[in-house]
Amino acid sequence: MTGNNIQLDAKGRLKHFLTIEGIDRSLFIEILDYAESFAAVGERAVKKVPLLRGKTIANLFFEPSTRTRTTFELAAKRLSADVLNLNILSSATKKGETLLDTLQTLEAMHCDMFIIRHANSGAAHFIASQVAPHIRVINGGDGRHSHPTQAMLDMFTIRKHKPDFTRLKVAIIGDVAHSRVARSEIHALSVLGVPEIRVIGPKTLIPNDISSLGAHPYYDMNDGLKDVDVVMMLRLQRERMCSALLPSEHEYFKRYGLNEEKLALAKPDAIVMHPGPINRGIEIDSQIADSERSVILQQVSHGIAVRMAIMAMIMGSQSEEAH
Amino acid sequence: MNDATTDVKQCVDEMITQIRAEIANNDLSEMLMIGIHTGGVWIAERLHKKLNIEPPLGKLNIAFYRDDFSRIGTHPQVTPSKLPFDIEDKHLLLVDDVLHTGRTIRAALNEIFDYGRPASVRLAVLIDRGEHELPIQADFVGKRITLKQGEHAKLTGPEYLTLEITGTE
After folding, report:
1. Number of C-beta neighbours around residue B10 at 10 A
2. Are residues A62 and A205 in the same domain?
3. Do A31 and A157 contact (CB within 8 A), yes or no?
4. Tell me, what's the ipTM?
5. Which terminus of chain B has fewer CB atoms gathered within 10 Å of its CB, N or C?
6. pLDDT at residue A81 tops 90
7. Chain B residues bordering chain A (beta-carbon distance below 8 Å)
8. Which domains are delineated in chain B?
């Protein structure tokens, strides 16, 4: 995989948004603050600003996704950009066109930004290293590697409820091994100075090297949830599960599903998060998902504001190159 | 006319006199006031208080409506706009510190119309330095000044407002 510096320009401004790694604390906070002003736009009668008028943004989804694609699309539209949605699974690549030919074709159509969702880790980096210099790339999730906009919107959501990151205990629960979300969350939480990051799940779903990222593994959920401020559930990625790593979904819910009883171990004001889509009764009890402590739907709304901020920022760095 | 000693308070008083007359002549007692970030808000706060305008002051940040985004990019800290009232069919008074090219006002009008359709919009500025590039004029002006090329008029605050002319050699 190529270095992370590819996402910054010579002046240290955000050029592509590929991974949380390499984004320092001040840039991180800058993005969160910028997102705050876009959140205000979402509350107006006309939820649109003309910032990216005349720009064309292509959503290149090599892997199915509804939530990420639609929030990126909505974010781009609220910035007044034109949006192309390309479901590459069912289009040109089937006709034998290579990835680079597809990209060049889109460049010839004068696209300004690509949003990439791909099953292979490093796909967005690769594309960012291949495109013409004025083109911007955002990683919408690559393999098991990274899902940086999800981590960003989750930090935005945490900050709304718990503004001081340096006093937090955060637990990430579930299929950490297959989760690009978990990896990005751990990086983001450490950049923001969270002193205690826990990952909870069965041994088969927690990578051996997790402590090297700064997270403490727990295999018993009752131990792991004790006194945490933030409970981040992960989706059980059934489609990614190649071998028999799990006993049964019923058994999984008994041990690692979030119910009232287990949540009572966390702090009384702990918030419950989930990147969606949720599997009710598998990772999370329906009542909790719908309860006041759940911020799952706020995460969705915040996703639009955060993606608007990131898109506006990286398009802004296009400016001086052209002049 | 390069007097760096422009008395801000005197200019604000001049604006108040003009606005009072207009309010009396046109029955604008229901007028809503909107300041443009940041200097315009400082001036608007003073006008709002002295004119005893009842509805809260609206604050507009036109960063997302600028016409030079593709040239200068984003400004990281954008205080969100806040219009704490419905502007539909209302008379608005838009307030800014310095009127120069008129582009800020153009952006502000665009943003205002994304909130609704006001009955009218009037413009009050502390300083009109001329050299407009758009067909935009102020209805109330604290003071008109002429600056040399390369000179800028900048309001500093928020506690004590002073007008600084920079770029003079």
Report:
1. 11
2. no
3. no
4. 0.76
5. C
6. yes
7. 61, 63-65, 69-74, 76-82, 110-111, 114-116
8. 8-148 (3.40.50.2020)
